[in-house]
Amino acid sequence: MRRCSASGTKLPPGYMGIPFLGELLSFLWYFKIARHPDDYINSIRHKYGDGVGLYRTHLFGSPSIIVCTPSANKFVLQDANNFSSGWHNEIVGTTSLVAVDGDSHIRVRSFVVKAINRPDSLRRITLAIQPRVTTALQSWVKKGRVTMFKEAKKVTFENIGKYFASFESGPVLDNLDVLFKGLIYGFRVSPINLPGTKFQCTPRTLTTFLFHS
Length: 213
Known about the structure:
Layout: H1 24-33, H2 37-48, E1 54-59, E2 62-67, H3 70-78, H4 89-92, H5 102-116, H6 119-143, H7 148-165, H8 171-188, H9 198-212
Antiparallel strand pairs: 1-2
Helix pairs in contact: 1-2, 6-7, 8-9
């Protein structure tokens, strides 16, 4: 029989692992070392069956539920009343698109959609970024061999800087690119606010980023 919670609600199948660490070591092995995150999910599904696509575990110091089927994910993502986003609000801000839920999310999202996803907006964006993309393609031809992922990220960041903040290519934009990467790392780490951790350093990176912007 499945173990029940204090309220009497049945929990999904799964394993809570060892105290405090839970299944974190296994999780990190698949995601960081083996680089096969799907194998982690598949191992759970093979062990406990597909069921409703929910599995309990313990990750990053907290009891967790892993959701891994389309129907279950759809239910979670569309139920803003019971499930909220888990972004670090001290990094992205309390009114950021990824941090707000419900009506606030709909309102902020409408502003973004109107700015970048309407036909007239897309035409303006295309005309604005076309010269920079053309120049980038020509430079790639001259180089002969390029790392597509890095080059595509570079030209994308340059276009974003130009379109939204009127930044031209140069040292300032290059410095912002480095700082932006630091912010991205802060999104992905555990919220452990201890000296020397990436999470603890991220607010300072954000302050520097905003200062240079």
